[in-house]
Design a protein that fits this description.
single chain; mainly alpha; Rna Polymerase Sigma Factor, Chain: A; Arc Repressor Mutant, subunit A
Length: 180
């Protein structure tokens, strides 16, 4: 299957799944499975968890496929929103967030990156482990998952202003520790 499919094809695939076509569901799974798994493995750094999250996303897609409405947006955006929400739920369920260990960071960094950048990344993740669990959660939502403040409001049920202040404080806390 091609790496990128046209929006119209994916929307047609969704309509076929809504009508109960098992071949369409298989095609959708074949296309999105490596994409979701790759996304999750980068975020959680655990093969078993990434496989579980990927499976959960497909179950949620199939369970909610009747709610997909092409006029409200394209199918790809809809399924990625489900994947993003599942990852947020995973971190919520986990309560405390475990960050990358040194071996994992070394495998993530490109061989072309210079040593000082690798050391800085390792240092930041060691420092983040020392933060309060709520600060770790905010750090993950903002900097690991890349959520906007508006998206973080839905997850944390805090105001956008308080989230901006909290994230700013976390950044300052980490800067002070890094720069002495």
């Amino acid at each position: 299957m091609p790496k990128f499919l046209k929006k119209s094809y994916l929307n047609t695939l969704a309509a076929s799944i809504q009508k109960g076509n098992p071949h369409a569901a298989t095609a959708m799974f074949g296309y999105f499975n490596p994409l979701f798994f790759g996304h999750f493995i980068k975020k959680v750094m655990n093969r078993d968890v990434a496989e579980d999250l990927t499976q959960d996303v497909f179950l949620r897609i199939l369970k909610n496929i009747q709610h997909f409405n092409e006029s409200a947006g394209d199918f790809s955006a809809w399924v990625w929103r489900i994947a993003k929400n599942r990852l947020i739920d995973y971190y919520r369920e986990k309560k405390t967030i475990s960050f990358f260990d040194l071996e994992t960071i070394q495998t993530l960094t490109d061989e072309n990156e210079n040593l000082s950048e690798k050391i800085m990344v390792e240092k930041i993740y060691r420092l983040v482990k020392k933060l309060h669990p709520k600060e770790q959660q905010l750090f993950t939502l903002r900097f690991v998952l890349g959520l906007s403040y508006k998206e973080m409001v839905k997850t944390t049920h805090k105001s956008e202003t308080s989230l901006r202040v909290a994230v700013h404080r976390i950044k300052n806390k980490l800067k002070k520790i890094i720069h002495g």
